[in-house]
């Protein structure tokens, strides 16, 4: 399984259900392998929420890095 496939699996199975329960979501945009940075789009309620950056760090980044250690950072686009 590629790094991108692992990331998409974590987003679909761990991150999205948690965010969807609050009316939001996030989607995979791209993974930049040279910088080990994942880029995601925050959607729904998460797209306009004033706490979106906290959600990105505490929910998305922590879950992805814990499951896919190749990822070193997660950024919002």
Automatic annotation (TrEMBL):
InterPro entries to which the protein is assigned, alphabetical: FSCA_dom_sf (IPR034904), NIF_FeS_clus_asmbl_NifU_C (IPR001075)
Gene Ontology BP annotations: iron-sulfur cluster assembly
Molecular function per GO: iron ion binding; iron-sulfur cluster binding
Tree of life domain: Bacteria
Protein name: Thioredoxin
């Amino acid at each position: 399984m590629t790094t991108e496939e692992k990331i998409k699996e974590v987003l679909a199975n761990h991150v999205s259900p948690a965010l969807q329960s609050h009316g939001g979501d996030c989607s995979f945009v791209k993974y930049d392998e040279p910088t080990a940075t994942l880029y995601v789009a925050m959607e729904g309620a998460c797209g306009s929420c004033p706490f979106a950056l906290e959600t990105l760090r505490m929910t998305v980044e922590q879950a992805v890095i814990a499951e896919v250690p190749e990822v070193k950072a997660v950024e919002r686009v």
